[in-house]
Specification:
globular; two-stranded antiparallel ribbon; mainly alpha; 5% strand; Beta Polymerase, domain 2; five-stranded mixed sheet; 444 residues
């Protein structure tokens, strides 16, 4: 049976089968050989929000008949529910766009909503969505809120402590419509305040692209993907929507910004943990976006965070199993290709640039073989560390709960002396801890 790390990588490869015949063969061999712990598979797929995408991939690639019948029924049911929800979210996005655009505003969808609207996924039912993220120029936000309130949207009840938190938050309190399927978050800034210096709202709005021009990873015809086997959902297309019914282009964040946003979200939610692998949902988003445009060091031109960004790109490649290492001899001969991967590699069946070797130095001096060997060993040690943490999640949990979290809480406690927002966060965290403790005592 598989270890935790092996199962994590197996699920990653399952999500990357389309257009990658060798990856599909590995998945088929594991399923046919009875090596997959299906109960742990369901738990991991559900907790990482990729169960619908897994079922869709298994159906397309002819693997669905190989999995246990009861599990197949369960996954098919979840997929069907999510497909309906995704379609309704797409329609909700179109209505929001049409209403705001008709009033002369410039709405821009980003994060999950943008990925859904640009047709990133082979099937729109693959992506699980929580809410709709909308970015607007600062001057248009008050008018947009008033307009949406007139359209029937309502503000969520926000108690006094949350009002303080939302004062300088990156988005307004969520809005909802009684007849719509999900909530709407109107953003002042595209990212959390910790990352505002890396990405400005004006930059994303200026470089936004119409949804259709962002470039779909998948066409509507399975014949364009020889690595895929037509299944029950053959011919069902994604939800790429270049414009609303009013003919006004529907804009989304460009692939470069979309990819950077995925990383920043994974980086923030994983802050404090030793592992840098992130979630399978984030890995799938990043992988598909990298098929449109390979990640590059210039995407985040800030030393420390840039290195973490490139490390995350390497982790995604490892998880998806689509980018083998470049031989050391080749890497030493061509350090630029070793660092970034040639542009043509992005158009290979794997569709990902090979960002898993030593980067070129900023000064332009080429690295020698000794530097390359050292870098290779460091990357091997890093990946072994990642696999070890995946196999021993208790270590990461202990570090986060008993070392990192108390340290962060102490910092918040000190800052709360002069910061009302931090004071409310401290109260909120204490209240949450007390609720959890009370629930445990009641045996809930």
């Amino acid at each position: 049976m598989m270890t935790n790390a092996a199962l994590f990588l197996f699920i990653g490869k399952s999500l990357a089968m389309d257009g990658n015949p060798s990856v599909r063969e590995e998945v088929v061999a594991a399923v046919s050989g009875g090596r997959v712990p299906w109960e742990a598979f369901v738990w991991t797929g559900s907790s990482h929000y990729v169960l619908p995408a897994l079922w869709s991939a298994y159906e397309r690639n002819g693997i669905a008949p190989l999995i246990p019948e009861e599990l197949a029924e369960h996954m098919a049911a979840i997929y069907a529910l999510n497909a309906v929800r995704s379609r309704r979210i797409t329609e909700q996005c179109q209505r929001i766009h049409e209403r705001l655009a008709s009033a002369g505003m410039h709405p821009l969808f980003f994060k999950g909503a943008a990925l859904l609207m640009m047709g990133l996924f082979r099937d729109s039912g693959d992506r699980m969505m929580e809410d709709i993220d909308l970015l607007l120029p600062e001057a248009e936000i008050p008018g947009a809120v008033d307009l949406l309130l007139k359209e029937g949207y309502l503000r969520h009840p926000v108690d006094e402590e949350k009002k303080v938190v939302y004062t300088d938050h990156h988005h307004l309190p969520p809005m909802y419509h009684p007849r719509e399927v999900t909530t709407l978050e109107i953003h002042r800034y595209p990212v959390h305040e910790d990352f505002r210096k890396y990405m400005a709202a004006e930059e994303i709005i200026r470089e936004a692209v119409p949804a259709g021009s962002a470039g779909m990873v998948y066409s509507h015809s399975p014949d364009d993907h020889p690595g895929s086997i037509p299944g029950k959902i053959t011919g069902r297309h994604n939800s790429c929507q270049a414009q609303g019914e009013d003919g006004v282009p529907l804009f989304v964040a460009c692939p470069r910004h979309a990819m950077t946003l995925v990383f920043l979200h994974e980086h923030r939610t994983g802050s404090g943990y030793l592992s840098s692998s992130g979630t399978l949902k984030g890995a799938l988003d990043f992988y598909l976006l990298s098929r449109l445009r390979p990640p590059e060091p210039g995407d985040l031109p800030h030393g420390k965070l840039r290195n973490k960004y490139l490390r995350y790109a390497r982790a995604v490649q490892k998880i998806m199993g689509v980018a083998p290492d470049i031989p050391a001899t080749e890497a030493s001969q061509n350090p630029f290709k070793a660092g970034l991967g040639a542009r043509e590699e992005a158009n290979s069946p794997a569709g990902v640039s090979l960002i898993n070797k030593q980067l070129p130095s900023e000064s332009g001096v080429q690295f020698g073989p000794a530097r390359e060997i050292t870098g290779r060993k460091c990357r091997e040690l890093w990946w072994r560390k990642e696999l070890f943490l995946l196999d021993h999640p208790g270590i990461d949990h202990f570090w986060f709960e008993f070392l990192y979290t108390p340290a962060v809480f102490m910092v918040l406690l000190v800052r709360s002396v002069w910061s009302p927002a931090d004071r409310q966060l401290v109260k909120s965290k204490l209240r949450k801890k007390l609720k959890i403790r009370a629930a445990r005592q009641r045996g809930i």
